[in-house]
Amino acid sequence: MNTSGAAVSPVSSKTRTTRLALESVALVVLLAATWVIAGLALQGAGVGVVSAGRTGFAALGLLLLVLLSHRGGARSGSAEPPLPTRRYSWWQLGVLSVTGVAGYTLLSTLAIALAGPTIPSLILALSPVVVLLLESALTRVRVRPLVLLATVVAIVGAVLYVVPRLGGAAAPGVVWGVLAAVGAMLSMSAYGLYFAHVNRGYRGPMTPRILPIFALGSVPLVLWAVVEVTGGGRVELITLAALALLGLGIYVPAYLVQHRIILTAGPSYAALLGLAVPPLVGVASAAFGLSALPQPLQVGGIVLTLAGMLAVIRMKFRPSNAQTKE
């Protein structure tokens, strides 16, 4: 885990904790919105177009932010030289763009198309424990039993919430959707761990660090969309508008916040936040008339998920309980 042994003043520690809490809430809301809007977009376009739209508009938004920041710096006339920018090797950039953008976007969009938004969100709920165990193995930091227990409790709550929505359907498309969701979960888990490793100790602007990843990762998805459209795939104007909203208005801030959390709180914490997404997806889907309101069992699952998440967050940021390497 990315923890530091340096002494931190109570005021500074409280400020950082408050900021992280606000960022965490924002990330959960934004991630839930991505699943709902992506599901709606799939009603007016194919998987390739939606996948390319998700990442393409996000990469465009990140590029605009970089250009605006450069123009702002030039207008301010700052005499201070710009901070040196770390450069990814082609190997690092390739791994990050495949696992975090092309692979994850393709698999998660395919999972939504084949199985709907609910089942994939259930599969992705398993990622916190996968990331936690892998992070422990890679950093040689022992997982505290209480942290692991609270994480499992949160996952059980997420499972209890999603299971009643499965409906007992076992169509062939659902099976492939589950497999795609498992692939998406493993892909994003690997991405979070590798991004944290490559950017260890980085505290500069986040946009320049993720723009190359999403720009390169969007290329195969855009090519796929072109092939899909030229082959007769449908694309409605309202779908393009939804994808523009998804990429520019939701994914850009979501990615910036998500990657900042990965570096400040660790990949396992960022993955843990994803457990709050299924309830929000379900409630939002019900609001759009795509599913029913939560059942009593699901309400209990929400309570368990929130309890497990809060327990992990409290243990993680309690000064006297900092993790130690063993």
- The share of residues in helices is over 70%
The assigned structural class equals mainly alpha
The total count of strands amounts to 0
- Biggest beta sheet attributes: none
Give the DSSP E fraction (strand runs of 2 or more residues): under 5%
Task: Extract low-pLDDT stretches.
Answer: 1-11, 320-326
Mean pLDDT: 79
Globally, the shape reads: globular
Question: Helix count?
Answer: 12
What is Rg?
20 Å
- Head-to-tail CA distance between termini: 13 Å
Topology pattern, helix = H, strand = E: HHHHHHHHHHHH
Overview of the structural elements:
- The protein is mostly helical and 326 residues long.
- It is 75% helix and 0% strand.
- The chain has twelve helices and no strands.
- The chain is globular and about 55 Å long.
What is the compact description of this entry?
The protein is 75% helix and 0% strand. The chain has helices spanning 10-41, 47-76, 90-115, 118-124, 127-139, 145-162, 172-198, 207-230, 237-265, 267-273, 277-287, 296-316. The model is unreliable at 1-11 and 320-326 (pLDDT under 50).
Give the helices and strands, then pairings:
Blueprint: H1 10-41, H2 47-76, H3 90-115, H4 118-124, H5 127-139, H6 145-162, H7 172-198, H8 207-230, H9 237-265, H10 267-273, H11 277-287, H12 296-316
Helix pairs in contact: 1-9, 1-11, 2-3, 2-8, 2-9, 3-7, 3-8, 4-7, 5-7, 5-10, 6-12, 7-10, 9-10
